[in-house]
Write a structure and sequence with these properties.
Layout (H helix, E strand, L loop, with lengths): L3 H8 L3 E4 L13 E6 L2 E6 L22 H13 L5 H8 L10 H15 L5 E4 L52 H8 L3
Parallel strand pairs: 1-4
Antiparallel strand pairs: 2-3
Length: about 190
Amino acid sequence: MPNIQYVRALAARKSATVEQWESFPKQTYRNRCEIASANGRLTLTVPVQKANSKQLTRDVKISYKEPWQSKHWHAITSAYGSSPFFMFYMDEFEPIFREKPEYLMDLNMRILKVVMTILRINTKIELSGDYIREGDTEYEDMRNIIHPKVAQTHGVNFYDSTPYPQVFDSKMPFEPNLSVIDAIFNYGGV
């Protein structure tokens, strides 16, 4: 589930191309997100079948050896069940955790479609037809800008850290740039 920075960058464009022919980079947002739990930031990771260093992003398969979907949905309902907009939007997200797409790319595109619908983002999304090399001047390459290991202020910053109400804000400081579901469940859609 993309973070707020990713969604803001996406919404600022008329079209975007998602690179699917790159070698799958590990430790990125491609298979993880962060939510605010009662104990602080919680990372939810979609397990993937063993990916080698030359495996294409489009070919990465999801592992269902563990019941990660029910664990993720439980974590989300525990974290956001009392949020102002959870009951309003939960029916949009809950089916995702019952589906079993084979490929991570399919899951990510499904989630992105739901988020874009809720937030009324009309950006045209397409998957790359061929590998787009880093530095290709035809594209604004953001693969390594919106990354869990890169500070939000690095390069082009699409994140506005203006606080909004969060479920646990009475006992914890504001958690910036979480998954967009944090903003949707706490602040609402469009």
